[in-house]
Amino acid sequence: MKKLLALLALAIVAQASAAADAAGNAQAGANKNSMCIGCHGIPGYKATFPEVYQVPKLGGQGAKYLEAALNAYKKGERKNPSMRGIAASLSDQDIADLAAYYATQK
Question: Domains in the chain and their CATH numbers?
Answer without folding.
Answer: 24-103 (1.10.760.10)
